[in-house]
Design a protein that fits this description.
- Helix 1 (13-23) runs parallel beside helix 6 (155-167) and helix 6 (155-167) runs antiparallel to helix 7 (170-179).
- The relative contact order is 0.15.
- This protein is of the alpha/beta class.
- It has helices spanning 13-23, 73-76, 80-90, 102-108, 124-129, 155-167, 170-179, 198-211; strands at 2-6, 30-35, 39-42, 49-52, 54-55, 64-67, 95-99, 116-117, 133-134, 139-142, 147-150.
- Strand 8, helix 5 and strand 9 form a beta-alpha-beta unit.
- 36% of the residues lie in helices and 20% in strands.
- The N and C termini lie far apart (37 Å).
- It has one domain (2-184): Rossmann fold, CATH 3.40.50.880.
- The protein contains 8 helices and 11 strands.
Length: 212
């Protein structure tokens, strides 16, 4: 089963690598990083480079798409080459999915029109502007449409575990969870906007401004 994870300049690393770590553990799930051209692309802060192994046109009919987010998605929502690939791939996928602002690309391709969907909490307005109905749920499924969206960054791991269950079975998903020892016990409870105080939110805004 062929799984395509698009990469592009200024992608968020964990958006793609989180699902990759879950999915590549399961025999029969073949993960390929695709992009505009083969070669290295750098993450949103430029610190990390990952190799694209196939151009979009080399993998026109994947069984699954996992579209990560990152600052670079803002350019992709106007990139006809990417949007056409998403539309054509979706015609035959078992599931077309996104993590974080990857949902902006799915929405721009017309896959989320009128559907509830999620993204990073700071981008709900952008998602709504592209025709989706934003929700703060961590993972949003429309199985009849073969579409699944995940919220910010780390939620891609949760989504990939659910995707493994849908593609294989529950035991496979649980086995992958155990193999990566995914047993979150964070020292703080501020992983959602509703639980973060003003000082934490202000620091997020400050850090985000520096990274741009």
């Amino acid at each position: 089963m062929q799984i395509a994870i698009p990469l592009f300049p200024q992608f968020t690393a964990l958006d793609g690598i989180g699902p990759y770590e879950v999915l590549q553990r399961v025999p029969g799930l073949d993960v390929t990083f695709v992009g505009h051209q083969r070669g290295e692309v750098r993450s949103d802060n430029g610190f990390l480079g990952i190799t694209v192994d196939a151009a979009f046109e080399d993998l026109p009919t994947p069984d699954v798409v996992v579209f990560p987010g990152g600052v670079g998605t803002r350019a992709l929502v106007h990139d006809d080459r990417v949007l056409d690939w998403v539309r054509r791939a979706h015609e035959g996928t078992r599931f077309t999915t996104s993590v974080c602002t990857g949902s902006l690309v799915l929405a721009s391709a017309g896959l989320l029109d009128g559907l509830t969907a999620t993204t990073h909490w700071s981008c709900y307005d952008e998602l709504a502007g592209l025709g989706a109905v934003p929700t703060s749920d961590r993972v949003v499924e429309h199985l009849d449409r073969r579409v699944v969206t995940a919220a910010g960054v780390s939620s891609g791991i949760d989504m990939a575990l659910r995707l493994t269950e849908l593609l294989v079975d529950e035991t496979a998903a649980k086995a992958s969870q155990l193999m990566i020892e995914y047993d979150p016990q964070p020292p703080f409870d501020t992983g959602a906007l509703a639980r973060a105080d003003e000082a934490v939110v202000a620091r997020v805004v400050e850090y985000a401004a520096v990274r741009r």
